[in-house]
Specification:
The protein has three domains: 92 residues, 3-Layer(aba) Sandwich (Rossmann fold), CATH 3.40.50; 67 residues, ATP-grasp fold, A domain (Dna Ligase, domain 1); 211 residues, ATP-grasp fold, B domain (D-amino Acid Aminotransferase, Chain A, domain 1). Helix 7 runs antiparallel to helix 8. It is of the alpha+beta class. A hairpin with an 8-residue loop joins strand 7 and strand 8. Helix content is 28%, strand content 27%. Strands 12, 15, 18, 19, 22 and 23 form a six-stranded antiparallel β-sheet that branches. Strands 3-2-1-4-5 form a five-stranded parallel β-sheet, with helices on both faces. It has a four-stranded antiparallel β-sheet with strand order 6-9-7-8, sandwiched between helices. The model has no long low-confidence stretch (mean pLDDT 95). The protein is globular, with a radius of gyration of 21 Å. Bound molecules: adenosine monophosphate and glycine.
């Protein structure tokens, strides 16, 4: 079958790498892709939210499956767009309906869903411009730090964690009265701060049954020792060593199963990947957020541990064989180290030549912000490449990734030297 992957990051390169290994994969397209996906499929320069152009491409190239990488097209309704068009509804979209995508697209929707379905999460209230006064009062009832979240998508920047009440009130005002996050911040969730260890679980579902993918932990801060600004992610490890089989069982019973059952009960069609951000507080586990896609760079450690044919499993979502298909996971640890441009996550330069990234024996080099320029591969973003290695344990995997990270060269290369330091 012909497959189209939407997106242009390390996540999409990892998906393309895996899908291209399937015997069921005929032609592979990536839109818009990067210099890495170009090596294994055909890049098509269209935007992930340009549904009309995606439609034309899908018909012209007889695409049977679209795997959606980022959240934007899902929140904008790409699943429904394909389902409701008689020329397109034979195409399988791997991603939830627009209603299902609200789990990520609206924090209030996600919170209400969790409350209704008895899924443990932080206590919260939602406020608008009209109820800002109640918002100030609610802050007074909480202990610091204060957690403020823009309701809508804000490119990963919509969550503020603030120590002083005065500053928290100012930020609430900036969001509700001064459009700090534009439309996304017209409603603000204020919630209880949870103090614990974060981890992520990934699920794949056909809307009825589900399979649990490997767990992962990402490193969000730019600086070593988890300091400095938040980024899209500077590295990741899978599995998460502090989660044993029994704790995973608890996560399944208290969180994953009630989520899938809740979606079914509410008649919300959900197929594809679900990424649940969790926080472990002693022996308790709570949901921090839902994402309706895979994480980046978590995908770069989750996917390489899958031994079975992923495309074959995804095909099962359409043809009714999903639940009987195998999902085999490697016992190895996967670690990824993200190479970024100097200055990221603030201002950075692009257009630098990248060398020495081919033939890296012990690692898989997933491209993120890269582009082809004549015969050269150049930097084209903040996050440049995710260097993934497999090993018998985190030390082994990290040693290989760090060796490769050192060998690859581009001007302004930066990376964290302490991925996995806390494990
Ligand atoms: P989110 O976009 O909801 O995942 O939030 C971004 C980050 O903020 C999370 O990965 C956590 O590190 C942190 N965070 C969000 N909500 C809470 C909370 N209630 N308590 C503590 N940290 C939080
Ligand atoms: N690494 C976090 C995310 O993809 O949202």
């Amino acid at each position: 079958m012909n497959v189209l992957i939407l997106g242009n990051g390390g996540r999409e390169h990892a998906l393309a790498w895996k899908i291209s290994q399937s015997s069921s994969c005929n032609k592979l397209f990536i839109a818009p892709g990067n210099a890495g996906t170009e090596l294994i499929g055909l890049n098509i320069d269209i935007s992930v939210t340009d549904f009309q152009s995606i439609k034309k491409l899908a018909i012209k190239e007889e695409v049977s499956m679209i795997i959606v990488g980022p959240e934007d097209p899902l929140v904008k309704g790409i699943f429904d767009f394909f389902k409701n068009d008689k020329f397109l509804n034979h195409i399988t979209v791997i991603g939830p309906s627009q209603e299902g995508a609200k789990l990520e697209g609206s924090k209030e929707f996600a919170k209400e869903f969790m409350i209704k379905n008895n899924i443990p999460t932080a206590k919260y209230q939602a406020f608008t411009k009209k109820t800002i006064k109640e918002g100030y009062d609610f802050l007074e009832t909480l202990n610091p730090p204060y957690v403020l979240k823009a309701d809508g998508l804000a490119a990963g920047k919509g969550v503020l964690i603030i120590n002083e009440i005065k500053k928290a009130k100012e930020e609430l005002e900036a969001m509700l009265l001064k459009s700090k996050f534009g439309k996304a911040g017209k409603k603000v969730i204020i919630e209880e701060f949870l103090d614990g260890i974060e981890l992520s679980v990934f699920v794949i579902t056909n809307g009825d049954s589900y399979k649990i993918l490997p767990s992962a932990k990402d490193y969000k801060r730019i600086g070593e020792g988890d300091t400095g600004l938040n980024t899209g992610g500077m590295g990741a490890i899978s599995p998460v060593p502090f989660i044993d089989r029994f704790f995973m069982e608890k996560i399944d019973q208290e969180i994953i199963r009630p989520t899938i059952e809740g979606l079914k009960k509410e008649n919300i069609h959900y197929q594809g990947f679900l990424f649940i951000g969790l926080i472990k507080i002693g022996s308790e586990i709570k949901v921090i957020e839902y994402n309706v896609r895979l994480g980046d760079p978590e995908t770069e450690v989750v996917i390489p541990r899958i031994k079975s044919d992923l495309l074959n499993l995804l095909k099962g979502i359409r043809d009714g064989t999903f639940s009987e298909k195998d999902l085999n996971i490697s016992e190895d640890t996967a670690a990824t180290v993200m190479l970024v441009s100097k200055g990221y996550p603030e201002k950075y330069m692009t257009g630098h030549t990248i060398t020495n990234f081919k033939n890296c024996e012990n690692s898989i080099v997933f491209h993120a912000g890269t582009k082809k320029h004549n015969e050269e591969t150049q930097t084209n973003g903040g996050r440049i490449m995710a260097i993934t290695s497999l090993g018998k344990n985190p030390e082994d995997a990290l040693r290989k990734s760090y060796k490769t990270a050192k060998d690859i060269h581009f001007e302004g290369k930066n990376y964290r030297r302490d991925i996995g330091f806390d494990l």
